[in-house]
Design brief:
110 residues; 47% helix; mainly alpha; 3 helices; 0% strand
């Protein structure tokens, strides 16, 4: 299930990038070249939604849904509720004493 969802997520990502790059900007006309919107409305040119904008909206929604589903599946595997790995508890056993060969050589008898 997770593999299929991951494959779908990657395909949606690639399609979203392609569709966004195919769209022209809002200032793609001659008036936009000089920094103005011509005789359009106050907040910029706004027309009927084109096919590319509808596809972009659909792909963006699919991207968000697949992202959330992948996160839910990943959280199901990690029940701790944290994205950080759990640290193993420190060993409670005392450290072994150093061997005589590694102990510093001192003067005997002092």
């Amino acid at each position: 299930m997770e593999g299929v969802l991951l494959f779908l997520h990657i395909v949606v990502c690639l399609l979203l990038v392609i569709v966004v790059l195919l769209q022209s900007g809002k200032s793609a006309d001659l008036a936009g070249a000089f920094g103005g919107y011509g005789s359009q409305s106050t907040f910029g040119p706004r027309g009927a939604a084109t096919l590319l904008s509808k596809i972009t909206t659909t792909l963006a929604i699919l991207f968000m849904v697949t992202s959330l589903l992948l996160q839910v599946l990943a959280a199901g595997k990690n029940r701790s509720g944290s994205i950080l790995p759990k640290e193993k508890p420190a060993a409670t056993q005392p450290l072994k004493s150093e061997s005589p060969a590694t102990q510093p050589q001192g003067e005997p008898g002092k």
